[in-house]
Amino acid sequence: MRTRLLYTLAMIFLLILSSGQAMADKIRVAVASNFTGTIRKIAESFEKSTGHKVILIFGSTGKHYAQIKHGAPFDAFFAADARRPKLLEKEGVALPGSRFTYAIGKVILWSPQKNYVDIEGKTLEQKEFRYLSLANPKLAPYGKAAQEILQGRGLWKGLRGRMVRGENIGQTFQFVKSGNAELGFIAYSQVKHPGESVEGSYWKIPQSLYSPIEQQAVLLRDNDTARSFLSFVKSDESLKIIRGFGYGYYGIE
Predict the structure, then answer these.
(1) b/e string for 225-241 if b means 16 or more Cβ within 10 A?
(2) Burial class of residue 244 (count of CB atoms within 10 Å of its CB; 0-12, 13-18, 19+)
């Protein structure tokens, strides 16, 4: 009798376990490089609460857009702008009504060296540096913002010979962090972490000096798990994480 009871309990346990595994799902999400640290924390919380797996693929918004157009198997796309998600929606690639703004990006001029960049960005005019890092303006919205800032100060042409361009904002950050460039235009979120002070020195650039970096996400496949993940990104828990990394507000468009 006892043996039969143990056998029955074991079978019930295996059925529950296999049922949970069957319900678990994997999704592939293309993400703009600036959102790397933030979405990793969000995905970690989502995975713990649902059992689903989120596979994150990072890169420039422009490159992701091209890959999606050519059939890359992504379930969702977190861009660093609003233009590409709108285009995908218009072109019938993204699911209508799924697009929303999840963050407003902020640009800073940063150096890992203390007291190297002043709080007004006059370091740029002084030109006491060899290399300035920025993302490719044609591929990355943060690179486009950097170009607008430099053009607004009349420095774009004069500094072109000193520019080191990253394919995306992640590579741009690495150029500065590694010392290949003394300073660079990066996303504030790359050095602003919840509860920690920013290392080095930086100029927090007024958002009036560049076009708003409205970062939007969109659903690419009609997938319940992907829908759940996008809903989770809109939750209070995720919003707290997003703000903790220095982003501005987000909302449903």
Answers:
(1) bbbbbbebbeeeebbeb
(2) middle
Half-sphere exposure of 88 (CA within 13 A, CB side): 34
Q: Which of 2-6, 70-74, 174-178, 216-220 has the lowest mean pLDDT?
A: 2-6
Would the CA dihedral through 148, 59, 121, 180 be positive or negative?
negative
Tens of pLDDT, residue by residue over 127-177, are 899 999 999 999 999 999 999 999 999 999 999 999 999 999 999 999 999
Binding residues for molybdate: 61, 169
Residue list, annotated binding site: 61, 169
Q: Are 176 and 169 in contact (CB under 8 A)?
A: no
Q: Are residues 177 and 163 in the same domain?
A: yes
Q: What is the pLDDT of residue 195?
A: 84
112 within a domain of the structure (yes/no)? yes
Find, among 196, 210, 177, 198, the residue nearest to 107 by Cα. 210
Q: Is 163 exposed, middle or buried (0-12, 13-18, 19+ CB in 10 A)?
A: middle
DSSP label of 141: H
Question: CB-based contacts of 90: which residues, under 8 Å, 6+ apart?
Answer: none
Instruction: Give me the DSSP letters along 16-85.
Output: HHHHHHHH--EEEEEEEGGGHHHHHHHHHHHHHHH--EEEEEEE-HHHHHHHHHTT---SEEE-SSSHHH
Give the rounded distance of the alpha carbon of 156 from its chain centre: 26
- Selection from 211, 187, 144 nearest residue 39 by Cα: 187
If asked whether residues 98 and 111 sit together in one domain, one would say no
Number of domains in the chain: 2
Q: Provide the domain limits for residue 17.
A: 2-104+214-244
* 3-state SS assignment for residue 122: coil
